[in-house]
Design a protein that fits this description.
The protein has 315 residues and is α+β, with helices and mostly antiparallel strands. It has 2 helices and 12 strands.
């Protein structure tokens, strides 16, 4: 009897459970209303408890980050002190350089101005690496000027219109710019080969280059201003290649550097100014005599004991 009663109870629970499931599927909206009523009833209590729990959580996070903030503050203070010391050293070096330049009568570097423009088209392909910018001759841009972005040198202007210009990138096969390796003071030519890493050519024989050394422009040729960052010596390359600071794919806003070399070596020497009417003419230097005067012959004196002869004139 007990076994039969247990089986009946199990069957009854199963039937009730299936009935509840069927009724829940049919009367889904009734359960949604019940859940909504339950949420409305418990919402005020949950809102009251959320405030203190949020404060406790915020306080615990503040306590855990207190030591981190303290250590970061100490690091920032050390960096500020180091920057102040570097600023003092830089001011001292600037004063020394100024005194040396005045002592050696070194001419000051030419001022470099710039024109802002934006890259409006990318014409890069398998054989050509150029971009188009929305600045041209109307803004004072001329052929040969250097183009930079916020990271470093991007290329140089090769053609200009009134409102647009085309820029030859450093990675193009036709790009050749004079550069210098910092630290070693080695001058070379950065040559593009349509890859992302231009190569350094015409280095002095026996040159030793450190990986990671910075490469900057030089004013050789009077085209690029000195000191514009170009890139660093790439690691793992057999020939000296340069990893550029710039990336033509990310170039957006650029600046065109308007630089003029302070000395023009091709300029002929100035000719003498014509004489002003009424002014006294400059004296010409005396011409050298065409022939030296003939020296007068001197008769030798007679020796002691020698007879003296007197010439007799004919009658």
């Amino acid at each position: 009897m007990g076994l039969v009663a247990n089986n009946l109870a199990l069957v009854l629970c199963t039937v009730v459970a299936l009935g509840v499931l069927v009724w829940a599927r049919v009367q889904d909206s009734s359960f949604d209303e019940a859940r909504g009523w339950l949420n409305d009833a418990t919402a005020p209590f949950m809102e009251m408890l959320s405030g203190p729990s949020a404060e406790v959580r915020r306080w615990s996070e503040g306590v855990s980050s207190f030591f981190t903030v303290y250590s970061e503050n100490q690091k920032l203070r050390e960096e500020v002190e180091a920057l102040r010391a570097a600023q003092r050293d830089l001011a001292t070096l600037q004063r020394k350089v100024q005194r040396y330049e005045e002592l050696l009568k070194i001419p000051a570097d030419a001022a470099v101005t710039s024109v802002a423009a934006r890259v409006i088209a990318d014409s890069s392909g398998p054989f050509v690496r150029t971009v188009l910018i929305n600045g041209g001759g109307g803004q004072g841009i001329v052929k040969g000027q250097a183009v930079v972005d916020e990271r470093g040198l991007l290329g140089r202007v090769i053609t200009t219109g009134h409102r647009s210009s085309r820029v030859l990138l450093l990675t193009d096969l036709n790009s050749r710019i004079p550069v210098m390796v910092e630290g070693a003071n080695l001058k070379a030519i950065l040559v593009g080969d349509n890859t992302g890493l231009p190569v350094l050519e015409y280095l002095p024989p026996g040159s030793r280059i450190t990986v990671g050394a910075r490469v900057i422009t030089t004013p050789d040729g009077g085209v690029f201003p000195p000191g514009v960052p170009v890139g660093v010596i790439a690691a793992g390359s057999r020939s000296p290649r340069v990893e550029l600071f710039t990336n033509e794919g990310r170039a957006d806003f650029v600046r065109i550097l308007q630089y003029t070399a302070p000395v023009d070596v091709d300029e002929p020497p100035p000719e003498a100014a014509p004489a002003t009417p009424g002014a006294p003419a400059a004296k010409k230097p005396a011409a050298a005599p065409s022939q030296a005067p003939t020296p007068t012959p001197v008769k030798p004196l007679p020796q002691a004991g020698a007879p003296v002869t007197t010439p007799v004139r004919p009658t």
